[in-house]
Automatic annotation (TrEMBL):
Region (Disordered): 307-328, 343-363
Organism: Nocardioides szechwanensis
Domain of life: Bacteria
Positions of transmembrane segments: 210-229
Descriptive protein name: Uncharacterized protein
Alphabetical keyword list: Membrane, Transmembrane, Transmembrane helix
Amino acid sequence: MSDNYGDIRSEAKALVEKFVELEVEHQAMLAFNRALAESGDLDDIHSWTNEKKALELQVYSDQWRGEIASWFADITEMFDDLADLPDPAPLRSEAEGLYGALALLAGPSGHTDIADGTVHGPAEAFEKLSAIPTMLVDWEGHAAEAFKLNFIPPLERVAFHEFEAVVSLRSPLIAAAYMWEKAREDVSNLIDEANSALDDYSGGKDSADAVLALGIIGAIVAVAAVPFTGGTSAALYWTMAGSAIAVTGAVVGHPNEPEKQLDISGDSPADIAQSLRDAIWKLKLQLLEHELFISRQIRTLSDQINGYTAPKGTPPIPRDPPYYSTEHSYSESTVHEFALPRPLLADATPGNVNDDGYLGTPK
């Protein structure tokens, strides 16, 4: 199979020329047979020399090649659409760039990135977390009590939820990169299989047949907590450890069962070309479904972090938090599982920061 995606346009052009060449020969032979049948001299064709056959073919080609070429012009355009698929490298780079965030959010115990199995050890920033209550034992006042009760206890849990949120963002990036990598391979292989079918035809087989096993089915979909099962099932879920709530996502379902293989076949070059057109459309539709699924995972994640849950069976749609529909349910407690409440100290001024309502004064 090919790995020459960069040459898709030139290879598609050469493939179309091959279709035209073989279809001209096919149509010429049909025309010769019709003419001989009408003349009643069916045995005359067997007496033709190779030179006479070549001359008759050239005469036919000069007259009809332009029209026959127009039958296949759309194939070049269809491959033009597939020649500029996204480069997977930037997506992988973006995913790798989130490793640093995972290391910082791994908390005092460390966590595992379930997208790729990477184990992140305890984060240095959390080393003294367990000692903070002792260190602050002499700090009193409203802000002190709020900090000790509302910020320190849930800090590790919130960091873990943020870790999982970053994992859930990394995973679609990885999935998208893998999808486009395999899509590029599939496009290259599609041309190879079309050439193979034409070779079967020109080699004298009664019916040309070539089969492409699609690589993109392996890209369904490496989102967080979604083990790949061959495209038959997928359910994004994560349970908030140590929390009273559980957030379940990807209610949008999963991509439809994909085409696992595409057949390129036919009894003539024109028939083979039609099966190629069908295969290209199936490939494009599969890519669109994959893209839609991945984008919905990201939107579902955004919904959850913002505390919004769509009505059951409603797919997430692009929106900013102020524009959620009234049917969405909102949970502030869910928001605080990803981000601690705004500290009162954030609104303090130099003139009142030591008041009991803020820092207070040690006693």
